[in-house]
Design goal:
The complex is a heterodimer of chains A (173) and B (613). With 173 residues, chain A is of the alpha+beta class. Chain A has one helix at residues 2-34; strands at residues 47-52, 62-72, 75-89, 94-98, 109-111, 116-118, 125-126, 145-146, 148-151, 154-158. Chain B has a two-stranded antiparallel sheet with strand order 1-2. In chain B, strands 3-4 form a two-stranded antiparallel sheet. Classes of the chains: A alpha+beta (173), B mainly alpha (613). The interface between A and B is medium-sized, with 27 and 39 residues.
Chain lengths: 173, 613
């Protein structure tokens, strides 16, 4: 009787283990497959001409489209819009800001009446130097500054995206 | 643990349900021959899982279907495995279905009171075949595209409803985006949902009626764990075979991990690209072969009528097998149909094996598939899709352009550029066509040009043209003895050195300067200089040149060859009256570039919007 029970128990165990193995092979492989995006880094970009220095009004931000090579899964597209930036010409320098809000990534508007940037999603507001204007803004940091180089009359910017929702400005998305 | 189970059971009553599911009595005991249904459920589960994962990466449109499948197969981690497993499991389902059907007929389990379950089984079989058919198109590669064309064309020959039905399935008058979205909706939506529903009904009815066993079975056992263990072991064997098939990359490579394993992905579909090796999946080969026996108007009998009649007989099996010799008839007929299917499949395979056109097509398709992957690795996939890479690839387009435009006069290693002899039919006989111009294989190489200088009248060069006895031929006859081999090679180095291309970049400048001297002044033994007839812009060559023969400035460079092809009678080439057509009038600039790059062996494929005008 005991031997029969042991046999029964063994059969159940074997069935269970086999059943688990049967599901694990397609499921496990599928999950590894699904995790593929985790091993892909974001694209590193160099400086790129965006505008002419002369075309920029003093102190007033203007948004520009940045184009470049976009690699999207299998597709490689040359010279397509990859994002936008604000450029502001100050007396001493030209500043560039990422247009997306560091809070949740919405496209920040320029509000000329109040000389500020205003996020249409959660009403974070920023000064023209990018710092937070209204301390009640949900944005954890000021607008993200991008590196700018001026060569002759050409304004070059190194376009980057940064992680949202944290205090530090860390490249990545 | 048990308290949590109690809590759950109290609220859901899962225990009696589970008991009912697991403790099914099996009169006569668990049997290996009862495993087929369970292995089918298992394989279908594998399909649902792998299918879902593939779904997360697949994009059904003409410009993205092949591309996303390429990405799955070659770039995503374990993509090749998930896709391979999905592919081979679909094959396994067809095999297991056949085994299951055979077992059911052998056991007489199609007879009353099991008619409805028999019919549900037939529905399941149709759905599984439908899944195979729709899935075959989704990668949008050559074989899927052409094989599926045949299927939908067959549909269109059905009287009255055929043409509109075909258009509804194809989603338009020709294959395109909506063909893919519709096939995908069927493949990943309607058909699997239908399959799940019918399987639930099928299994529920089976549980109600139980296994079909011998009249007075001895003993009894339970599904759990007796039959479950057998089912599990059988499914495990199936899985191991499938994993093996997925890892098997052919006899040369053996078992491999990586994108060379798994299911084949041919090159992206192109309506203008012949694909003589396109065949349906093996389990449709019998139907494909059957069609060959029905000429012309009779096609509908082979494609629709007879297969439908056989299906209809299977539908009526429960009534036919009820009494007397009925069961024997049903069994015989099932075995006969299966044997017929196997025989037709075998004949189809054998015919292909002995068909040189098919074999050539297989090699070509394989070459194109490898080529497109090579191009993608080199330059990425443009937004217009991978097919553009092949359209802009000299190695792919060059031979075809050469065959269609050049090969009635020129040859390429004696053939038409694509490896086929140039023939014509005269008085019913296929005869080799005489070339009327040079053989261009190797044009621009030292070997080719050296050969030209040594014997311009050879068949490979001007032998078939009016230049056969030209000044060049006479020059060669009288001057060759006055030139050392070394000097001749030096001139070749100098002339081809202008290209500065991959072929001549190594030649040193001293040698070229020497070559320029011989070109301009002749050899040390007093051979006539080339400069007497040919112009060539170079500091060491006098600017005043004769125009008796082609200007060799930039000879065998892309620019030179482009000019030659566009209009060989223009100044600097062969002059008025040259018999070669002006291809500037017949080919687009892009086509000429493709031809030039292929002839010169330049490895710089271009991406084009469209090659044709």
């Amino acid at each position: 009787m005991e031997a029969m029970q042991r046999r029964e128990w063994f059969k159940k165990l074997a069935s269970g283990v086999i059943g688990l193995g049967l599901v694990l092979v397609p499921l496990g492989a599928g999950i590894v497959f699904l995790l593929d995006p985790l091993r892909r880094g974001s694209q590193k970009r160099g400086f790129k001409r965006v505008a002419s220095k002369e075309g920029l009004p003093l102190g007033v931000p203007r948004s520009f489209t940045v184009s470049g090579t976009r690699t999207d899964a299998w597709e490689t597209a040359a010279e397509v819009p990859i994002g936008a930036i604000y450029l502001i010409r100050q007396p001493e320098e030209i500043q560039a800001f990422q247009v997306t809000c560091p809070h949740a990534g919405c496209f920040v508007d320029y509000d000329p009446a109040n000389q500020r940037f205003l996020c249409p999603c959660h009403e974070s507001s920023f000064n023209l130097d990018g710092s937070i204007k209204d301390p009640r803004s949900p944005a954890p940091r000021g607008l993200d500054r991008l590196e700018v180089k001026v060569q002759g009359s050409d304004v070059l910017v190194r376009y980057q995206e940064f992680r949202k929702g944290i205090r530090e400005q860390i490249a990545g998305s | 643990m048990s308290r949590a189970a109690d809590w759950l059971d109290h609220r859901t009553g899962y225990r009696p349900l589970l008991r009912k599911l697991l403790y099914e009595g099996i009169p006569g005991g668990a049997r290996w021959r009862y495993v087929w249904g369970s292995t089918l459920v298992f394989t279908f589960t594998v399909q649902l899982l792998t299918g879902f994962f593939l779904w997360t990466a697949y994009s059904p449109s003409v410009q993205t279907a092949w591309e996303s499948v390429y990405f799955i197969q070659h770039q995503m981690q374990l993509g090749w495995f998930v896709r391979g497993l999905h592919h081979y499991t679909s094959h396994a389902m067809v095999v297991l279905l056949a085994m299951h059907l055979l077992q059911v007929v052998l056991a007489g389990a199609y007879r009353p009171p099991r008619e409805i379950n028999w019919w549900l089984g037939l529905v399941l079989m149709a759905v599984v075949l439908g899944l195979g058919l729709t899935g075959y198109l989704l990668p949008w590669d050559e074989r899927g595209y052409w094989a599926t064309q045949v299927t939908t064309k067959i549909l269109s020959i059905v009287p009255v409803v055929g043409p509109p039905l075909e258009r509804l399935i194809v989603g338009g008058p020709v294959y395109g985006h909506h063909t893919l979205t519709r096939f995908f909706a069927l493949h990943a939506g309607l058909l699997p949902a239908l399959l799940v529903l019918v399987v639930v009904g099928h299994v529920a009815l089976f549980r109600r009626q139980g296994v079909t066993h011998a009249k007075n079975p001895k003993g009894k056992s339970w599904f759990w764990p007796d039959q479950a263990l057998l089912d599990g072991v059988a499914s495990l064997v199936v899985l191991l075979v499938l994993v093996g098939l997925t890892l098997w990359a052919g006899p040369e490579k053996g078992f491999v991990f990586g994108s060379e394993a798994g299911a084949v992905l041919e090159s992206p579909a192109e309506a203008s690209q012949p694909s003589p090796s396109a065949r349906p999946e093996w389990y449709f080969l019998s139907l494909y072969q059957f069609l060959k026996y029905f000429p012309g108007e009779m096609e509908i009998y082979g494609a629709v009528v007879i297969p439908s009649l056989i299906g209809g007989v299977f539908f009526l099996l429960p009534f036919l097998g009820r009494r007397g010799w009925g069961h024997a008839f049903c069994l015989t007929m099932t075995l006969a149909v299966m044997a017929g299917v196997m025989l037709l499949t075998l004949v189809a395979v054998r015919e292909d094996q002995s068909n040189p056109l098919y074999q050539q097509g297989v090699l070509e398709a394989k070459r194109r598939a490898e080529r497109v992957v090579e191009l993608v690795h080199r330059q990425g996939i443009p937004p217009g899709g991978a097919v553009q890479l092949l359209r802009g690839d000299p190695q792919t387009q060059g031979p075809i352009l050469f065959r269609n435009n050049c090969s009635s006069c020129h040859r390429w290693q004696g053939h038409d550029g694509t490896g086929v002899a140039v023939t014509e039919i005269r008085e019913g006989e296929t005869v080799l066509m005489e070339p009327r111009a040079s053989d261009l294989a190797g044009f621009g190489s030292r070997e080719w040009m050296g050969g030209l200088l040594r014997d311009p009248s050879a068949e490979r060069y001007f032998g078939h043209t009016k230049h056969r006895d030209s000044l060049m031929a006479r020059w060669s006859k009288t001057n060759l003895p006055l030139l050392s081999e070394e000097e001749l090679e030096t001139v070749v180095t100098f002339v081809l050195g202008q290209a500065g291309g991959p072929k001549e970049s190594a030649a040193n400048s001293e040698r070229r300067a020497q070559g320029a001297r011989i070109f301009a002044q002749g050899s040390s033994q007093g051979s006539q200089s080339c400069h007497l007839c040919h112009r060539l812009e170079h500091p060491d060559v006098p600017a005043t040149g004769s125009v008796l023969a082609p200007d060799l400035t930039g000879y065998a460079t892309r620019e030179w060859l482009r000019g030659m092809i566009m209009d060989s009678s223009q100044p600097g080439y062969y002059g008025q009256g040259h018999s070669m057509p002006k291809f500037a009038e017949r080919l687009t600039p892009q086509e000429i570039d493709l031809l030039v790059d292929w002839i010169l062996g330049v490895e710089s494929p271009r991406v084009l919007g469209s090659v044709r005008k």
